[in-house]
Automatic annotation (TrEMBL):
Source superkingdom: Bacteria
Pfam family, one: AsnC_trans_reg
Domain Transcription regulator AsnC/Lrp ligand binding per the UniProt entry, residue ranges: 6-76
Species assigned in the record: Longimycelium tulufanense
Transmembrane segments: none
Record's protein name: AsnC family transcriptional regulator
GO molecular function annotations of the record: sequence-specific DNA binding
C-alpha cells in the first residue's frame, strides 16, 4: 500500500465543501483542515503509483475550490500504535 500526504491550498470561501468533496473520493483516507499556509491535508492510500496519478491530478486537483496541491509520498510509518503493537506480540501467552 502506498501512502501519500497531499497538502492542499483551497479557496477560503469553499474550504468545508472542498474538504468534504475530497474526503468522498475513493482512495482518500482522511482530510484535515488546518491553520497556516496550507488549508487542507489529505492522506491518500493506493495500491500502485499509477493510482496516485489518477487520483491526485486526475480527481483531487479538479475538485471545485482546490487551488494548488503538493504531494509527499511516505516511505515508512512511525507511530506509537505501531510500536506498542510490536512490543505486545506474544504477551497473551505469557500468563
Amino acid at each position: 500500500m502506498i501512502t501519500a500526504i497531499v497538502l492542499i491550498r483551497a479557496a477560503a470561501d469553499r474550504i468545508p465543501e472542498t474538504a468534504q468533496a475530497i474526503a468522498d473520493i475513493e482512495g482518500v483516507a482522511e482530510v484535515y483542515s488546518c491553520a497556516g499556509d496550507i488549508d487542507l491535508i489529505a492522506t491518500v492510500r493506493v495500491h500502485e503509483h499509477e493510482d496516485l496519478a489518477a487520483l491526485i491530478p486526475g480527481r483531487i486537483s479538479k475538485v471545485p475550490g482546490v487551488v494548488e496541491t503538493d504531494t509527499h509520498i511516505a516511505f515508512r510509518s512511525y507511530s506509537r500504535r505501531d510500536t506498542e503493537a510490536t512490543f505486545a506480540l506474544g504477551l497473551e501467552d505469557a500468563d
